[in-house]
């Protein structure tokens, strides 16, 4: 009888040890996951909005070309950043509006930003309701568009029609993608400058739901040339356009 009790006690002790080990293991997993700050990735733009939006491109008359040298001189910071959110598009900011959101800084190439910092950004252009955009435009221009629609028997529900506004030579920004980005500080919000030369996609996997800060290996990364569509060496780009400027 005593032998049986000993076996029961030993079994209970083993069970307690197993539970304890599982608990410690579970605790280890939580601790490991919590050491890396994760951020939600999101966009106000839905697939339906993309499918139904009309695209309008505005030509911008430039006094100077947005070369890497020019935007490098104008920028307060140059970084490799992951876009966390596209929050909204503000139609009142300009003729093409401004997209607003947040981005996570991975590598700082120039300026006073810090790795792991989350900043608010704005970028020319964006997708918005036609009604919101027309409310921000001169009344005469809005009346002329309405007149042309009536003359051509075009009926539009402005509250359910979206317009995607861009400046010629610019590129669309996407949540979860990482970019080489040129930034100008405007009262705490960083504007992406330089159109297609100021926002160049990195050849890395897109983060679809959550993102964490990454310390990219600069020597192996590639960035997209928005004119050719090809990916080029980031290291060569830095040596040509960024390192030389920092040495001056």
**What's the gyration radius in Å?**
26 Å
- The number of E-state strands comes to 14
Number of domains: 1
Largest sheet properties: 5 strands, mixed, barrel
Terminal residue distance:
89 Å
What's the order of the H and E elements?
Answer: HEEHEHEEEEHHEEEHEEEEH
Q: How would the global form be characterised?
A: globular
Q: What share of the residues does DSSP label as strand, in percent?
A: 25-35%
Strand order of the largest sheet: 4-5-6-10-9
Secondary-structure content class: alpha+beta
Q: What is the mean pLDDT?
A: 84
Helix content: 25-40%
How many helices does DSSP assign?
Answer: 7
Low-pLDDT sequence parts: 1-34
Describe this structure in words.
The chain is α+β, with helices and mostly antiparallel strands. It has one domain. Helices cover 33% and strands 31% of the residues. The chain has seven helices and 14 strands. The strands form four sheets. The chain has a five-stranded mixed barrel. The chain has a three-stranded mixed sheet with strand order 3-8-7. A two-stranded antiparallel sheet has the order 1-12. A hairpin with a 2-residue loop joins strand 9 and strand 10 (189-192). It is globular. Residues 1-34 have low confidence and may be disordered.
């Amino acid at each position: 009888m005593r032998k049986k009790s000993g076996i029961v006690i030993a079994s209970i002790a083993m069970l307690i040890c197993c539970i304890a080990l599982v608990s410690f293991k579970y605790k280890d997993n939580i601790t490991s996951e919590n050491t890396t700050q994760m951020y939600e990735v999101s966009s106000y733009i839905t697939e339906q909005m993309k499918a139904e939006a009309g695209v309008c491109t505005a030509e911008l008359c430039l006094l100077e070309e947005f070369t890497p040298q020019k935007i490098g001189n104008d920028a307060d910071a140059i970084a490799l950043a992951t876009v966390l959110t596209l929050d909204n598009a503000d139609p009142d900011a300009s003729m093409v509006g401004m997209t607003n959101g947040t981005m996570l800084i991975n590598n700082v190439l120039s300026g006073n930003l810090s790795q792991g910092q989350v900043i608010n950004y704005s970028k020319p252009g964006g997708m918005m309701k036609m009604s919101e955009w027309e409310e921000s435009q001169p009344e005469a221009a809005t009346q002329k568009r309405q007149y042309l629609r009536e003359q051509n028997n075009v009926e539009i529900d402005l509250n359910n029609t979206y317009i995607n506004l861009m400046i010629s030579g610019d590129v669309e920004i996407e949540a979860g993608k990482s970019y080489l980005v040129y930034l100008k500080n405007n009262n705490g919000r960083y504007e992406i400058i330089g159109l297609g030369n100021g926002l160049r996609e990195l050849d890395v996997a897109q983060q679809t739901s959550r993102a964490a800060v990454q310390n990219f290996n600069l020597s192996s990364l590639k960035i997209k040339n928005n004119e050719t569509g090809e990916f080029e060496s980031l290291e060569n780009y830095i040596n040509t356009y960024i390192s030389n400027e920092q040495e001056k």
